[in-house]
Amino acid sequence: MSEAAPAHTLAHPILTDDYATEWMGLSVLDLGDGTATVSTTLRREMLNGFGIAHGGMLFAIADSAFALACNPHTPEEGHNTITVAAGVDVNFLAPAHEGELITAVAARRANAGRSGLYDIQVFASPADTPHTAEAPGRLVVEFRGRSRTIPQR
């Protein structure tokens, strides 16, 4: 197994102890109020027996973007609460391949009380073609997350 170097370009409090996100080598490209964009290069150990991206890996990348989008960017904003997934729906639309750049873009769609609804799109593109809004790459996953804010323990 190769060691992935974290490439966090933007800070977020949950990244301090997020070892899964670190292992995936996710770079945080954008953080906003209810939004986050992360990316990584699909490595060999992220593939399934068919030689394509393991669905669980694409799910995990989307889930990390979801977590960043639905949690405050500074500890003071959280007021001793955390926001966790209450449920998700995921649709795998196309395969992703070793060496491709995987980018997950998360955005809040609704927020009511302690509940939220987020859409996360996961794109694959050649490693030498970074994700842009104008040329996002091939859509490989649609992920809809339902969040719940709870007291931090």
From TrEMBL:
Which InterPro entries does this one have?
A: Acyl-CoA_thioesterase_PaaI, HotDog_dom_sf, PAAI_dom, Thioestr_dom
Keywords tagged on the record:
Hydrolase
Per the record's keyword annotation, is Hydrolase included, yes or no? Answer: yes
- What are the recorded GO MF terms, alphabetically? acyl-CoA hydrolase activity
The chain positions of domain Thioesterase read: 50-124
Q: Which SUPFAM superfamilies match?
A: Thioesterase/thiol ester dehydrase-isomerase
Matching Pfam families:
4HBT (PF03061)
Q: What is this protein called?
A: Phenylacetic acid degradation protein PaaD
Q: Which organism is it from?
A: Sinomonas atrocyanea
